[in-house]
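Contributing new complexes? Match this layout with adenosine-5'-triphosphate.
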Amino acid sequence: MAKYKIGVLYGDGIGPEITKATVEVLTAAAERYKNTELEFVDLPMGWVGIEEHGDPMPQYTKDALKETHGWIMGPHDSAAYPAEHKANRNPSGELRHSFDLYSNVRPAKTMPGIESVAGEADLVIFRENTEGYYCDRNMFVGVGEWHVTPDVVISSGVFTRQAIERIAHEAFRMAMKRRKKVTIVHKANVIKLGMGLFLNVCREVAQQYPEVTVDDYHIDAMAAHLVRRIKDFDVIVTENMYGDILSDLTGELVGSLGLAPSINTNDNLAMAQAAHGSAPDIAGKNIANPMGIMFSTVMFLDWLSARHDDPEVFQLARHMESSIMATVAEGICTRDLGGSASTNEFAAAIVERTKRTYQEV
Ligand code: ATP
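Output block (do not edit by hand):
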């Protein structure tokens, strides 16, 4: 019997709704797998963290996460926190930084039953997760921005060979399992040193993968190419902020930001986290699409299965994934995808399908 301890951080805005739906679906799917035991540990984050521990990412939560095999992280609404909490890294930035979760993997794939405005697509973005233009990640102490005069601010971007090498290797290893094609996205024509290093180190790493075809685009041109010909791209590697922006674009292009998944990983831990934010405009209305965090959880199960060499968890991932996709293909989905199901109704339909298809898996 393999036991896995999984942290659950519900977060803010739509976080509690979509995270609860995800845990329900995962619990239902896991019932079938008798050699796998999942223990969920609920931990405070966001507004709950502020209320209970005076911190949106309490030390209590970070300590407890060290004892887990990984965790499911809901979104947070850090823009709304009191001023004293805005000075620090936001909760997910803090976890990515303190656990060194350097690889943010963000796939975008067309699915049956979901209209894609850009046509067929199946790509994966590898976003460097620990430095780059997200300057709150860039300092050992403090935040990498300086308020020089009331009207002058300097915001840093940091690029290091070590961080670029490891994300590039992740991207190329994935490319070897896919279409053997990597696109490097940068802006080395303007940001000559920082983005120049990013581009050059990625090209150096590429030498170790001679079977992989490599091309590169400036970030602005890449946005246009994705809209025009998304199907031509397979694995994309880029810095932190560019990856964040491009993955919102690709998520929306293949159907909805609400279904864009991601995981944040290093060699020992993984954090499942939807690419979207806390969507305060629709919070508490029971209309949010939970597919982003559900598919992130499927990615987490795949990672768990590979990390612990556990084929049953791989089966569990396929079962959860196919139950979600089959439910959508039946026409049951939330309103962002043109359906009429509430978050709860959608989750209940997936749970029902999960149980019904036990025999078929
Ligand atoms: P952050 O900076 O925290 O990532 P954001 O500014 O990118 O957040 P989101 O919270 O992702 O913004 O919301 C962007 C838009 O997408 C909003 O209109 C929101 O309602 C919608 N949206 C985001 N997530 C979902 C979801 N799961 N289901 C339906 N709509 C969503």
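Reviewers usually confirm one structural detail per submission. For this one: The pocket of adenosine-5'-triphosphate is lined by residues 14, 18, 75, 257-258, 276-279, 281-282, 288-289, 292, 336 (CB under 6 Å).
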